[in-house]
Design a protein that fits this description.
This protein is mainly β. It has one domain: Single-stranded right-handed beta-helix, Pectin lyase-like (Pectate Lyase C-like). Helix content is about 5%, strand content about 35%. The chain is built from 4 helices and 32 strands. The protein has a 21-stranded parallel beta sheet that branches. Helix 1 links the parallel strand 1 and strand 2. The relative contact order is 0.13. This is Nitrous oxidase accessory protein NosD. It comes from Actinokineospora auranticolor. InterPro entries: NosD_dom, PbH1, Pectin_lyas_fold, Pectin_lyase_fold/virulence.
Length: about 450
């Protein structure tokens, strides 16, 4: 798939630190003011956390292959944390710590490494102090009376997040960022999650999320929220965009979901989410003004795309255009089990065979303004989930180019946003070389 217009990897001059142990400080002290350094782990600092503590803005922390049993907290702006080998550099929580890597400063890049076995999140990028404080069990999802503070500018690239107890890659109360070329599996909630941002100006692209309860979830993520060219195959639910009272910045509005492969999302060997979702490709739960265009949605045993309401929040003015639906239980279904219903949801130019209610293609053709009808259909019973620790290990993933020779990554203040008109309908083999689960 094309990169859709964001080139963030810029080589800049670096000053390598020399010496280790007791000489670490002298290397930093002697560098010229404003000079960037490459701090090598373990040559210059014994752990990733120790190297991050030494880093100044603009530095590169370059990590040699090994298993690092630590939780890394990056609170200095414009630091790059990069592994020399994506599969060989592992931040392992040993099921004892909440998060693998926590980013609380702007302009930080996390690249080319694996995070696993954390009780909450693999990588957490957040402007929320409560989320970063790792409150037991909530992962920062409900921050109570804390005012919204959005972390600005981040990059997560070529990261493998597997077997983490909540989310794999979690951008919460953050904006102006990119999650790209990454892999997420084994999450009891979502492999990739973006929550509580407005406007988000976040691009999620060219990722693989499989063997999760949900591949991608965007909760209260509104405004310039792009999910483009990803593979969401072999989860329990492929993708959701929704509103939720547990987070701030209600309701969710204005995501653009384009060019994704969303298929076969009824994988049994996956963790089970609390709400028991199963066999759904795309779910819209109280989200509004979202556009779904040129996605391939196939082989989801319950439904390809479902629109419904969240409690008292209706889904309004969602547009489903030019998508390819095949072999789903129901290709497109709108269901409103309570009095809360949406308005203006519409279909245009899709390749599909079945809808619920019937004849939605005619009765809900774009543009539509009337109240959306409601239907029910027979849904398959989900099998019990498995512990997230038992999810299959990922396949080897592509490396960050020239990881050991490229300087620190300059993360732009605002990412270049995709030109959606140029995003094609994906093939059924999109990113299959990175995946364990294939379409049947």
């Amino acid at each position: 798939m094309p990169r859709f217009g964001l080139a963030v990897v810029l080589a800049v001059p670096v000053l390598a630190l020399t010496g280790c142990g007791g000489d670490q400080g002298s290397g930093i002290d002697k560098r010229p003011d404003g000079a960037n350094a490459t701090i090598r782990v373990p040559a210059d600092a014994p752990t990733v956390s120790a190297a991050v503590a030494l880093a100044r803005p603009g530095d590169l922390v370059l990590v040699a292959p090994g298993v690092y049993r630590e939780s890394v907290k990056v609170g200095t702006e414009r630091v790059t944390v990069r592994g020399e080998s994506r599969d060989g550099v592992v931040v392992d929580g040993q099921l004892r710590q909440a998060n693998g890597i926590v980013v609380t400063a702007p302009g930080v890049a996390v690249e080319n490494l694996t995070v696993r076995n954390n009780t909450q999140n693999g990588v957490l990028v957040t402007g929320s102090a409560k989320a970063a404080a790792e409150s037991p069990g909530d992962g920062g999802y409900d921050t109570g009376d804390e005012p919204v503070a959005l972390l600005k500018s981040f990059l997560v690239s070529h990261v493998t997040a597997t077997r983490n107890g909540l989310y794999g890659i979690y951008a919460f109360s953050a904006q102006d960022g990119v999650i790209e070329h990454s892999y997420a599996s084994g999450s009891p909630d979502s492999g990739i999650y973006v929550g509580q941002c407005k406007p988000c100006r976040i691009v999620v692209r060219d990722n693989v999320a499989e063997l999760n309860a949900v591949g991608y979830e965007g909760t209260n993520a509104s405004g310039d929220m792009y999910v483009v060219g990803n593979r969401f195959v072999g989860n329990r639910v492929g993708l959701t965009t929704n509103s939720d009272h547990q987070e701030k910045l209600l309701p969710q509005r204005g995501a653009l979901i384009a060019g994704n492969l969303v298929s076969a999302n009824q994988q049994a060997a996956t963790p089970e989410q609390a709400d028991g979702g199963w066999g759904v490709g795309i779910g819209v739960d109280g989200g509004s003004e979202n556009t779904f265009v040129r996605n391939r949605v196939a082989g989801n045993t319950n439904a390809g795309l479902v629109i419904t309401a969240t409690a008292d929040i209706p889904p309004n003015d969602n547009q489903v255009t030019d998508n390819a639906f095949t072999d789903n239980g129901v290709d497109v279904g709108w269901t409103f089990p309570t009095a809360t219903r949406g308005r203006g949801n519409c279909l245009r130019g899709n390749d599909l065979a079945t809808t619920a209610p019937a004849r939605l293609v005619e009765t809900a053709a774009c543009p539509a303004a009337e109240q959306s009808p409601s239907a029910t259909w027979v849904t398959p019973k989900p099998p019990p989930g498995i512990p997230f620790t038992d999810v299959a290990a990922p396949a080897s993933q592509p490396q960050f180019p020239n990881a050991t020779t490229t300087g620190p990554t300059v993360v732009p203040p605002t990412p270049a946003l995709p030109d959606v008109a140029s995003v094609p309908l994906p093939s059924a083999s999109l990113l299959s070389d990175r995946a364990l689960v294939r379409m049947s």
